Amino acid sequence: MPELPPALSGFWVTFRTQFQKVNTEQYPEQKDKFPPKPRFHGRHQLNRWADGLEKCVGCELCAWACPADAIYVQGADNSEAQRFSPGERYGRVYQINYLRCIFCGLCIEACPTRALTMTHEYELADNGREKVIFEKQDLLAPLREGMVPPPHAMVAGMDSHDYYMGKVTGATEQQREEVQHEEAQREEARRQDQGAAQ
Amino acid sequence: MTATSNDKDTAQAAAEVEMVTGVIDGHEVTVPKGTVIIRAAELTGVDIPRFCAPPLLDPVAACRACLIEVEGMPKPQPSCAVELGDGMVVHTQLTSEVAAKAQAGVMEFLLINHPLDCPVCDKGGECPLQNQAMTTGNPETRYTLQKLTFPKPINISTEILLDRERCVMCQRCTRFADEIAGDPFIELVQRGAHQQIGIGEEPFDSYFSGNTIQICPVGALTSADYRFRARPFDLVSVPTTCEHCASGCSLRTDYRHDAVMRRQAWDDPEVNEEWNCDKGRFAFPYLSLDRLSGPLVREDGELRPASWPEALRLAADGLGRARGRAAVLTGGRLTMEDAYAYARFARTALATDNIDMRARAIGPDEAGFLASQVAGTCGPTYAQLAAAPAVLLVAFEPEEESPIVFLRLRKAVRQHGQQVVTVAPYPSHGSTKLSATLVPAVPGAEAHSLAALPADVRDLLQQPGSVILVGERAATAPGALRAAADLADQTGAHLGWIPRRAGERGAVDTGCLPGLLPGGRPLTDPAARREVASAWGVAADDLPTSAGLDLPAVVAAIAADVATRRSAAEQGDEAPANTIDALLVAGVEASDVPHSDALLRALQDVPFLVSLETRPSEVTDFADVVLPVSVVTEKEGTFVDWEGRRRPFARSFPLATTFPDAEVLALLADYLDLDAAPRDVPALRAEIDSLGAWGGERPWPGAAGATDTPNPGPGEAVLASWRLLLDRGIMQEGEPYLAGTRQPSVARVSAATAAGVGVPDGERLSVSTDHGTIALPVEITEMPDGIVWLPMNSPESRVTTTLRATPGDTVRLGRE
What we know:
The complex is a heterodimer of chains A (198) and B (816).
Chain A: H1 6-17, E1 44-46, H2 61-65, E2 71-77, E3 89-97, H3 106-110, E4 116-118, E5 133-134, H4 136-139, H5 160-164, H6 173-197
Antiparallel strand pairs in A: 1-4, 2-3, 3-5
Chain B: H1 3-16, E1 19-24, E2 27-32, H2 37-43, E3 67-70, E4 77-78, E5 89-91, H3 97-112, H4 128-136, E6 154-155, E7 160-162, H5 172-181, E8 186-189, E9 196-199, H6 210-215, E10 221-223, E11 236-241, E12 250-256, E13 259-265, H7 278-282, E14 296-299, E15 302-305, H8 308-321, E16 326-329, H9 336-348, E17 355-356, H10 366-374, H11 382-387, E18 390-394, H12 398-401, H13 403-416, E19 419-424, H14 429-433, E20 437-440, H15 446-451, H16 455-461, E21 467-471, H17 480-491, E22 494-498, H18 504-509, E23 516-517, E24 521-522, H19 526-536, H20 551-571, E25 582-585, H21 596-605, E26 608-613, H22 618-622, E27 625-628, E28 637-640, E29 646-649, H23 661-671, H24 681-691, E30 716-722, H25 736-739, E31 747-749, H26 751-757, E32 764-768, E33 773-780, E34 787-791, E35 793-794, E36 797-798, H27 799-803, E37 810-815
Parallel strand pairs in B: 1-5, 16-17, 16-25, 18-19, 18-21, 19-20, 21-22, 25-26, 26-27, 30-34, 31-33
Antiparallel strand pairs in B: 1-2, 3-4, 3-5, 6-7, 7-10, 8-9, 11-12, 12-13, 14-15, 14-27, 23-24, 28-29, 30-37, 32-33, 32-37, 35-36
């Protein structure tokens, strides 16, 4: 094949490409077509035990491991009246700054209770710095079947060790009643406040 | 004492000490005889693991972590308890397999029952056991059975939490409580694997309990206050000086973001060694409690927020109008530099000598005593106190009023049998722990007790190096200060004055007293005035020439002004000029002053009141202008401790945007169009140093003689009272756990006095004056008849505000 003049060879590339298969992915219209790989590092999640109590103990090892200083944690004491996790300590404040996070996953390796894992969610861009600092409520795993939202007591007769050993399989009727009772009391207080305001 | 003579002393002492030479890991080391191997090894750079052996506690060899091999000895030896002998050949874990194996074995034993809860343990990250387990511990445990567990954690006091399963039985805490603090409220109980730290029926309410948390080598002892608030790697640590009392402890402030998380004792062998008291350790929440966020000015009787320029303009105008007729009350809490700025501002900007740093009961001959004996001097030191063969305490309770002085005395009593003699109404808990001899004294009549001191006590004090310590309360006893100074002259004992507040000594040195210029210069001495005037860049004639008014005199003058104005108004005359037209008040709590009602009335009546404060107070309630100032964490400065030793500290929070007092005063001086005063701490320090101490005469005019011993009638008693370390002081606010360790409030009387008013032991005794009544459970105490002791400022017993009485006053007793 005779050599094309250099000026035309560029046009030839363009012409030839018109008939090749298109590589463009139709994001976001067709995003389900290309799911992330199984070990993709996406947004973090704070997991729960089977009865809804939080796994995070506020130990800050994730913050310690973080090479980007993206995680901020403050622990606090579980009390008999307000229990968020089995054992003594829970994470009262939990923030991850996704402007800093480099998704390296060292925090996940550091977590001693498997409280912190990563999801496949990657759509984290937003239009304000404060909107990409995720608070605890943004990171907590949703309540699944059989979970009731903390604060509530541990399963009767179990201690934190039993939770680690996987002996708790779901919220008991007692825990459900406790949470419903608390909710009813809050509702009552709210109604009284509204009544007082009127 | 100068540095040179100090070095010479040390050199002489070293010459007398017998030295021994041994070999540790092949290195020869020569140490004084009696040094244990673990310390000798430190000198060669060999670190032997240890849990039970901090240097200031006696060796016990409880944890066995420091086992080493000594040639010629059949078994591994604990290096924390075996002294290095001459020619001894020692092999540590670095050169001996026997030692390394012994240490590894001990670690394995210690970890058998230790829980794996490092992630939730407050010690995690700064834990010697954790470090040791990480460096030499076995990564796999051979122990597969159930670990011993205890219910987590138990309160051994409201502040201290004990987690028994973490304990490695090193006994540092029990030994500290027994040897150092003298409060053996915790002890080992049970045996074998069940051995644990326990308390008896009483909680661990020791003033020094916080030190056990710091020396605990595991997370067995933690504080309720710091529980789960931060991890060591979150914290920024800065050295600082304690702002609570005049002991001058070095502290470490650990903060996270803009909040102090905890405070710990910092190692300073010359002052606090490794210890501090619970007040210094835990009483810091007040630093961020309801702070004033900006200047306030009074408009139509109400305070409203204002800008700095507006507030400064108003304050400067008001103070400028009152030039020559103003007074300054600085309180006893300022740093040396801030106090100096007030002393300078009063004499130059306000052209007055009416300045007083004492927000407490004061006496007539106190100012003379401070000016002639204390200001600008360097008194007896902690080292001299520790070496003294005998110490006389006059109106001073070291455990309550200066706890590190107490620890040093107790150390001397334990180590070389120091004789402590206390002139007090009864042997307090602290005096008992010092095995002190009591010279009974009726409050207010300490001078009589000093004059009639038993001959054997006088002989004790004549031993070279003896010390007389006078507390600030001696000022209220007529003639006591003079008697103590005379006694020091006669016996050759060193005389030390110990105020309660951290800022008082610095304020004395910088001239925050009427008639006293910085460096102990008497205001009435023209040469002293010239020196100060040239340093301040003013004409010597511009400085006041006669001594001004102290706090009670200022209060009286304001009351007299009001009376004069009223009578002039009634007769239709033109009112004469006031004596006091304006008050400038720094951190003063009105209820600290006896007859605080009179002070409050004066604050209300004075025509113009400027308050420099950190929080809303009784003073800001009446102020015309309130200017917010920095707390200690937000400024650098210096506290001068009771020895006269400067204890400088840097800013903890470098980004703080508040102004220290000295800077606000410099701004005020700018608004008054005065020559620039130094406003930053280095410049202030330089000016203080360039002035130096006064080398001339220091007169102590007037002789306030001792008054007669009060003679209470039936149903009456003489009031004895002092402040307890933990009371309702405003700098202890916001710390409920610390407040829970306060001593219970009781009234103390002798059995005969109690019988006289028919109140049996434990029943409630009412103590009353014309103004009010305090009722407390009575504790029969061995003390002279006709005296009743009350805590001065405890929640149930507020002597200054309820009774409006000072120690030495006669009060009525009765059954509630």
